[in-house]
Amino acid sequence: MAGAKILRIYLDEVPFLRAERGNFNIINKIRAAFESRGFRVELKRNSDVERLKSATRRGYSLFHMDDPFHPRALTLRKAYFYPFWRIETSAKRWEWEIARTGFDAGKIDPIAARTFCDRWRRTLFPKAEPLAISGFVYVPLQGRLLEQRSFQSASPVDMIRQILLYEPARDVIAGLHPGEIYTPEETDTLNAMVDAMPRLHLSDAPMARLLAGCDYVVTENSSVALSGYFMHKPAVLFAKIDFHHIAANVESLGVQDAIGSAPQMRPEYDRYLFWFLKQTAINGGAPEVESQILDAVRRKGWDI
Questions:
Q1: pTM over 0.70
Q2: Parallel, antiparallel, or unpaired for β 84-88 and 136-140?
Q3: Domain map of the chain by residue range?
C-alpha cells in the first residue's frame, strides 16, 4: 500500500482552511515537493476517526503535530521558530532525529554562525530590555505543576524547591506561562512557596525581559531555554527535549552538579543554533526547501 503515490496531510480546522486557500507556506512547499515526484496530495480535516482511517488507506500520511502511529505516517511540527520545521517519526521532540544526533561545534563555521544568529537575535528580540533587577535564575513554567511526568526528573514545583536548595545566593523568578490556566491547587501551592521562600518570586513579565536579565535558565523543557541561547544564557533542563546538547541535563549530571555548573557554562551558542536550525531543520523560506522536505521523508523510510 505504501507504493501508491498519494500523500494525505491531516490538519485541524484553522490550518486546514489556511492550506486550502494556499496561505500555509510549508504545506504549499510539501505539496510542490511531492507533486514534483508524481504524487497526488490531498488535504484532510484532522480528527481521531480520520487518522485511524489513514492506517488502512493507500499511500502516505502526514499529521500536523499528532503522533504518527503507523509505519506510513510521519508528523510535521514547527522547529520552535518560523519558518523552521521538522518531519519526524514521533510527536515527542526528545525522540526526534536531532535529539539523537551529536553536536560538534568544530564543524561549524563561526562567522556564518554569528551572522545567522545576529540576524535572528534582531528578529526575535528587537527590544530585549532587561528588568530593573538582574543576576537571578529564570524559571519559565509550563503546565501540570504538581505532576512528575515520565520524561521529567521532577515535578515543576519540586524543580523549584531543588533550585532553591542548590542555588545558594541568587533569587529565583518563576515565569507563569501566558497560555496556561493553572488550577486553584497549583496557584495555592505556588503562593505558599513564595511565602515560605524569600528568594522565590512569581512574574508575568515578558519572556524577553526575563531572559535579558537572568544569569541562567532552569526549566523542564520549555522552548524559552532555546530562546535563551540567542542571548547566550546557560540552561539547566529537568526533562528530555531535542535541544539538550549544550545544556546542563539533570538526568545525566544530577541536580546539584547541573545547577552548580550552569553559571560558568560558556557553550558555543551561535554555532549550536546554526546547526540546530540552519543545518538540520527544514527552512520553509529557503530556495532548497523542497529538496529538504524530500530528504527528510526519505531518511524516515518513505520511498519518494
A1: yes
A2: unpaired
A3: 6-100+282-299, 105-276
- 175: helix, strand or coil: strand
Q: Number of helices (H) and strands (E), helices first, in the chain?
A: 13, 12
Starting at the edge strand that comes first in sequence, how are the strands of the sheet with 282-283 ordered? Answer: 40-45, 6-11, 60-64, 73-78, 84-88, 282-283
Please say whether the beta carbons of 262 and 167 come within 8 A.
Answer: no
Phi and psi, residue 165, nearest 5° = -70, -40
pLDDT of residue 105: 98
SS3 for 232-244, per residue?
A: CCCEEECECCCCC
CATH of 6-100+282-299, one of 3.30.700, 3.40.50, 3.30.160, 3.40.630: 3.40.50
SS3 75: strand
Mapped onto helix, strand or coil, the DSSP state of residue 166 is helix
pLDDT in tens, 201-241: 999 999 999 999 999 999 999 999 999 999 999 999 999 99
